[in-house]
Design a protein that fits this description.
- It contains 13 helices and 21 strands.
- It has about 450 residues and is α+β, with helices and mostly antiparallel strands.
- The protein has 3 domains: about 1-175, no CATH class; about 175-260, no CATH class; about 270-445, no CATH class.
- It has a 7-stranded antiparallel sheet with strand order 7-6-5-11-10-9-8, sandwiched between helices. Strands 14-13-12-18-17-16-15 form a 7-stranded antiparallel sheet.
- A hairpin with a 5-residue loop joins strand 2 (about 85-90) and strand 3.
- Helix 1 runs antiparallel to helix 3 (about 55-85), helix 2 (about 35-50) runs antiparallel to helix 3 (about 55-85) and helix 7 packs across helix 8.
- The longest helix has 29 residues, at about 55-85.
Length: about 450
């Protein structure tokens, strides 16, 4: 048996070990059913291209039978894996997962370093009443465990137990009460997605692809397009992902929930927020709408290379009036109003490096946060708490060097919110970096971030 531990500082407060348990018995069936739609569509496309009309019915029946057999085979293999997967809490209060058919592997997630617990209801498992729990802790390497699948009630109970143990509370304390803050209207979401330059470009590209496919491959080619995807599907998927988006606050952080076919829920814990970015397309300015993107420690998107800021886990609010967005951010950064922070604009010579946006480049700070502003057509106001500054660096390319300009970066974990002071005077950029390092050291000494949540606060709210 091999064992890999995500180690850290002091272990979580123990409340007794639990017996190893399996996931829900319907898990193998749900895993097999997940492949049915794609396999069936692929089979129909192949039959349509390779079978003549006289044998079309027989071909479709054989395709359906083949898809069922493959799904049952996948379900059978999943059943073997299901029998070998167990999870439990050990006598130190940490979370354990054992899995593997040929090679048995046991992992320990140290809950004193808990970063996030999410409950996701994918479309097919949701039909069976199942949900997935994702647990993340700080640490290098594989610091995430996905428990697929549990009943919705068991998934929520597991999430509550993990959060409680991480906070040093009794695992039966129950879920912290929450207060609703914002619900994004579906109409606003649709309009916001349509009022984007990227959406217009994707619509035009989709029309070109569909017309070209019809002219070259005929109607059957459209099935291949549906199977392989068209550019506009990215916008449609974003609408499905943010449908019925709600945000609420509780003692364990801000809770977001959304999704039409796949329901996702996550908690943004206090003290883990690295940076916030307010993004406003020029088509949104008339309504004063903004999207709020976030970088949270230990909560990278499912695809760590996805920097588009369209992932559910990267978004605090998909669209909202600016004042509403500021009030929500104020729940996790109390007393901070980035829009009112005085900004120092870039020097006049920056127009030779950024002729379009040089008038919109700015940098500012107060005793709690560092703020940068950039972009003309898409405005990006980024905010980072001083205590979350990991490192500061100054870069200067050949063109900037010739203009005696430099750019200062506040480095943070992988995420969409980038705090970048573009095209400052070179001496000013170096001074900004030195001063920010000093502010960060002072802020760290009084940083209240620690455990997932304070037990006293949790008890006060319950």
């Amino acid at each position: 048996m091999s064992q890999s531990d995500d180690t850290g500082v002091a272990a979580s407060a123990p409340f007794g070990a639990t017996e190893p348990r399996h996931t829900h018995p319907l898990t193998p069936l749900a895993n097999g059913a997940r492949f049915l739609p794609v396999a069936l569509l692929a089979g129909i496309v192949l039959v349509g291209q390779n079978v003549d009309a006289s044998n079309l019915v027989l071909g479709l029946l054989l395709t359906a039978a083949g898809v069922v057999v493959i799904s049952l085979l996948i379900a059978g293999l999943s059943w073997i894996a299901w029998r070998r997967l167990t999870f439990w809490f050990d006598d130190q209060g940490d979370f354990r997962v054992a899995s593997g058919v040929l090679t048995r592997t046991e992992r320990r997630l140290q809950l004193s370093r808990l970063q996030g617990v999410d409950v996701v209801e994918p479309f097919i498992p949701r039909i069976f009443g199942l949900a997935q729990v994702t647990i993340e802790v700080a640490g290098a390497g594989d610091s995430r465990a996905q428990i697929q699948y549990l009943s919705r009630a068991d998934a929520q109970d597991l999430r509550n137990s993990v959060v409680a143990r991480a906070a040093g509370l009794h695992p039966d304390v129950g879920e912290a009460p929450q207060q609703a803050l914002v619900a994004v209207p579906s109409r606003d979401l649709v309009i916001s997605l349509l009022l984007r330059g990227s959406t217009v470009a994707l619509v035009l590209l989709t029309v070109v692809i569909v017309v070209a496919t019809l002219m070259t491959a005929g109607p059957v080619g459209l099935l291949w397009i549906l199977l392989g995807g068209i550019p506009l599907i990215a916008v449609i998927a974003e609408y499905f992902g943010f449908y019925n988006f709600t945000i609420a606050k509780s003692a364990d952080g801000l809770r977001t929930r959304a999704g039409l076919f796949q329901v996702q829920a996550q908690t943004i814990p206090p003290g883990r927020l690295q940076a916030v970015e307010f993004v406003q397309s020029w088509l949104w300015r008339r309504k004063d709408w903004v999207r709020v993107r976030i970088t949270v420690a230990g909560m990278a998107s499912d695809d760590d290379q996805n920097q588009s800021g369209s992932s559910f886990r990267q978004v605090l609010l998909p669209v909202a009036p600016y004042d509403v967005a500021l009030s929500v951010v104020n729940e996790i950064l109390p007393g901070v109003n980035a829009r009112n922070t005085p900004l120092h604009r870039a020097p006049a010579r920056a127009r030779w490096r950024a002729p379009i946006q040089h008038k919109f480049l700015g940098v500012g700070w107060d005793d709690r946060v560092f703020v940068t502003d950039r972009g003309r057509f898409v405005r990006r106001l980024a905010v980072a708490p001083h205590a979350r500054t990991q490192s500061v660096r100054v870069t200067q390319g050949p063109w900037q060097r010739w203009l005696d300009l430099a750019t200062m970066h506040l480095d943070s974990p992988v995420g969409p919110a980038k705090v970048i002071a573009l095209y400052r005077a070179a001496e000013e950029a170096r001074q900004l970096a030195d001063e920010q390092n000093a502010r960060a050291q002072i802020a760290l000494k009084t940083d209240p971030a620690g455990r997932w949540m304070q037990a006293g606060n949790r008890q006060d709210d319950s």
